[in-house]
Amino acid sequence: MQRRFMTVDVFTDDQFGGNPLAVVLDPQGLSDAQMQQIAAEFNLSETTFVFPPQDPRHTAEVRIFTPQAEIPFAGHPNIGTAFALACSGEINGRAVGDMLQFEELAGVVTLTLERIQGDVVGAQLTAPQQFQRMQDLSPALVAAAGGLEPNDVDLSAHQPCIASTGMPFVFAALHHRERLAEAGVQTQVMAKHLPRDLVTGVFFYAPTDEPNLDYQARMFAPLHGIAEDPATGSANVALIGLLADIDSAEDLVLRKSIAQGVDMGRPSFLLAEAEKRAGVVSATRIAGHCVAVMEGQLTLS
Questions:
Q1: How many CA atoms does the CB half-sphere of 128 hold within 13 Å?
Q2: Which active-site residues does the annotation give?
Q3: Which residues contact 178 (CB under 8 A, 6 or more apart)?
Q4: Are residues 266 and 213 in the same domain?
Q5: Is 151 helix (H, G, I), strand (E, B) or coil?
Q6: What backbone torsions phi and psi does residue 136 show, to the nearest 5 degrees?
Q7: Tally: H helices and E strands in the chain
Q8: Domain identity same for 24 and 114
Q9: Mean pLDDT over residues 102-119, rounded?
Q10: What is the average pLDDT across 39-48?
């Protein structure tokens, strides 16, 4: 049997930048095991499979697989899948509108397409779950997970912690961009202290003085088969929630620009936004552009 697929580079305006994604457009009849094998074959950070929705008011049911596991939510797969569906023009026999709603394990993810002169260039997503800050972690432990020293971790704004808007990550701020460039994942430390059932990966970020850019970031998730991710929407949308949460203002709309993937040669650019009302982070969003790369057929025995 044959199944159609597209690949898309996400959070970039340039082919072969950003985070590549494979989108299987007609996966009906595939088993869970087959979908996992296809994701392992593509060997990208994630592969999505687009099914008819359970609720006809929604656009589609979208299942997301890393090379090693299915996950409940992720950012670049949602942005890229919305873009791929817009490029194809229809989904399950229906025209694709400017607002899409994807049913996922973490909940319903709402996306809005972005157009320039009528052409779809990307999308913005709203996270499916409200921001949560969970446990704080030892700076020494988190530094060790990234091959860094404890004094590399900047504690002025927050302790290293686990936070989530649908996918839990470890977050740690670093003092200097130079130390971010020197980070490298320590899989044994993560396997022992930060297992896959606790967190998806470890996310480090550092301020930058580059124009129109607030932070550089890196994310490591080796226990999901992702040594390093070029762009992690689900982590960056939780980061903006964390930054809004620790801000002293009771009410705000916070926007930050974030680059990721630079140190691995896949530069990505993300725009993050959070709303805070009466001291509570009420909504978080992430946006970026996409570029189509390939279309083809999977031939399955």
A1: 19
A2: 46
A3: none
A4: yes
A5: helix
A6: -80, 155
A7: 6, 19
A8: yes
A9: 95
A10: 96
